[in-house]
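Appendix C. Worked example: Bifunctional aspartate kinase/homoserine dehydrogenase I
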Amino acid sequence: MKVLKFGGTSVGSVEAIRKVAEILKKESGQEQLVVVVSAMSGVTNTLISISQKAAVRDASYESNLQDLEEKHCTAFKELTGNSNCFEISKLFVRLTEICRGVYLLRELTPRTSDYIQSCGERLSSYIISEYLKKEGLQVELYDSRKYLITDKKFGSANVLWQSTKAALQELKPQLASISVFPGFIASTSDNETSTLGRGGSDYTAAVLANLLQARELQIWTDVNGLMTSDPRLVPSAHLLEHVSYEEALELSHFGAKVLYPPSIQPALDAEIPIWVKNTFDPEGPSTLVTKEWDDEKQTICGISSIQDVALVNLSGASMVGIPSFSYRLFKALSQANINVIMITQASSEHSICVGISKTDAHAALEAIIEEFEQEISLHKIDEPVVDEDQSIIALVGSHMKNQVGISGKMFNTLGRNGISVKAIAQGSSERNITAVVAKADLKKALNTLHESFFLSELKKMNLFVVGVGNVGRAFLRQVQKQQELLAREFNLDIQVVAVANSRKSYFNEEGVDLTKWEQLLEHGNDSTIEAFIAQIKALNLRNSIFIDITASHTIAATYRELLESSISVVTPNKIAATRDMSSYLDLKYATKKYGSQFLFETNVAAGLPVISTMNELFKSGDRIHAIQAVLSGTLNFLFNNYDGKRPFSSIVKEARALGLTEPDPRLDLSGEDVMRKLLILIRESGRKWEMEQIEQVSFLPEACKNTPDLNTFYELLDAHEDHFLELYSKAKEKGAQLRVVASFQDGVAKVALEQVALHHPFYFLEGKDNIVLFHTERYKEQPLVVKGAGAGAEVTASGIFADVLRIANQ
Ligand SMILES: NC(=O)c1ccc[n+]([C@@H]2O[C@H](COP(=O)([O-])OP(=O)(O)OC[C@H]3O[C@@H](n4cnc5c(N)ncnc54)[C@H](O)[C@@H]3O)[C@@H](O)[C@H]2O)c1
Ligand SMILES: N[C@@H](CCO)C(=O)O
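Step 2, the predicted output written as structure tokens:
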């Protein structure tokens, strides 16, 4: 025998009831079916409202009753083709009489209320059984009130187990192949109609399953089953195929509304497997709930949540060691009818903290103040503090038991996203780890936990890109090209959420379509950097990375604020890392404090792994003694290509057109760009160093320095062509190459143009290449060498991409 329960939405319309019939046709035949039905959706609430209106002499209840009758008659006629609604009308005549009585007496007793509410299930079960008969099924309708016997606690009556068992045992041999029972309703031993309270139809089904020794219980509803998390908050939440009763209980307690555990307790007691299925997708996937089984793979089964929670904290020195203290607190809350969702108390006993529904916050405060009035007035304990706008998240899984590292991973994941945990609770069953976080962080917390605990899950990185010039464009192109592969092969969902230039910004939380970002940005909103950052913060997305691909001081000045908000920063912009030492250290400190990252590999030698190599050397205990490098792609390009046949300025212009130079090439030519790079290398080698400590020997004629604009600069370069020709000729005479060399040795840092001879490692340095020689404790005889293209949009963009992936792979 199987018991099938159909909820309100499953019998809420003619179409839905037809689907129920199809399901029953498929299920019937092999074994007996017991079918439990709820009232049509919305009907119980309407009946409650009708009874309440009648009790306050609101005559509009009459028309509500008529509407209800019509709704049921219409459904009956449509389904059965029978225009005679006699049975339904008979029930409404009685119902109208009762409501009239309530109206006249102005009194609605719980007993009468139960009778009125019972009509919903009586009507739906009648209509459905008549329809099933018409469809040719062997159906019998049974009045649950004859078999489910309860006490007199009207409104949420308790089933009297022995009487019910006796009644059902007598009935069992006579049951039809399909026996329909109205859910939710029962009667007292005096034949008074009673109801079973919240989840009542599930309870009816579970009682029948238990006492009729059913093989299986099916709960048919409007979703496919239990999900790993709330799909409205976690779009990638997926269906759970198999959970244990205990897991279902934990998940349901924290928000999953599909199963109400107390209602299915009788099925749990008899270890009857429960299927949760979707009436509107009967062949689709579903959830099976059984007793616990061994499964080492499924450590976590779900992450559930309660959105609106308040935390009440009570603290004070006189709480310590007083046994009655918590008793009084919970007594006060219980007397005020307040349900406590979670409790935490540190072993210092100095404070106790309870999580309650936000709607109870005010009443809880009053109850606690009243209970502890004396202690508060004597300052033995502090006034209770309520923290509203909180949410609870709970990691659920039977197999977390005895598994090391689950809570570590949970809090590490939250911490890396800057999510502060206000309170924690874990029972010794280890089936649930509960944390309270600010409601504003709920979505972010759920999604980031979901990604880190479900291995098949894609990890989403949310990128905010400012600056879409040469490098910015190349970067967006590269991301677009790699997105699919990264998702497929590496479980990474790299998504650009916003792009901005100096005038406009365009946001799309679902990801900017990178095939047409230019049009989207062009039609984006007028924006300032302040507004852009405010919007990033308001979105509060997990794994957020701000990518600055400008050369702007203003943008660089925002990093601290971003890092503080646990938003990582990746940039080729050298400004932030080359301001005074204390600002540089401050940014590093912010990353440690707020769990964010500040990566700027492309500050030196574009995409070449220079900073990361040095960081690894430093962290692994090596000591950098000296650095010798060619760090400017532009300058190397100039001196590799200049031979006096065409003006020096034209080669500068060519380098600019190739995207090698800084947005303002005077920064390259002046040597400042190289000085910045050298300064970063010295700092990243663990030394405190300032720009002024770098000695610079400029190769530019005096007149070409500090020019007011770029055109004047080019004109002055032309005017001093002889100077460059002379530099070239002298080097050529000696068979040497010209290189702007950055060096750091014995406490001296220097940038200067040098003639390098044939034997020198810098002699053969093609095109825009860079080279860095690290002389270290471990690389004594021969330096560690990093060499390759040191400028250009593609290589720089790939270096930025590498930094993003470093953060993603953490
Ligand atoms: N080109 C290279 O080879 C290379 C190599 C390493 C590092 N970098 C660095 O990359 C950065 C970008 O270089 P590029 O070659 O792409 O320069 P670019 O001039 O082509 O692009 C910079 C972009 O930033 C935009 N911008 C400037 N101020 C802005 C603001 N306040 N808000 C939004 N956008 C703003 C500009 O409009 C421009 O589109 C620079 O910091 C540069 O030093 C470049
Ligand atoms: N303009 C720089 C590239 C960015 O660091 C160079 O030519 O090396």
